[in-house]
Amino acid sequence: MVKMLLKATWIWLLIVVAAILNGLLREKVLVSLVGTEAALPASGVLLAILVFLIALISIPFLGPADTKACIRIGLYWLVLTLSFEFLFGYCIVGKPWREIVQVFNVHKGDLFIVVLLVTGFSPWLAAKTRGMLDNEGI
Taking the domains of the chain in order of start, what are their residue ranges? Predict the structure, then answer.
């Protein structure tokens, strides 16, 4: 289990890099092409797709034994992502909590909640897609 969590941490760090690059793409390219209002949700959808693709590619490396292991990995990624979002935003960037929680504001076009859902379910869905879980249920 410890070995799998260590591997899951490395994969999650790759997800962080993808998220940072996605944010740069949004700010440097998408905003100028489609405007801020459309760039934010487009970026959220793109990040959700990237997270799933990373999970799909990496799931054989992680080698979860069953559905429970996939769910544990997804929850682990979810906790790491939320911790990073809040702690990095507050401690490193210095954003106030009021501003940090705006990532959950779907009314302004932020789809971070979708990214979180995809992050949590991606290991299980990737393993199912690759046929690693046979006909196990969730």
Answer: 2-129
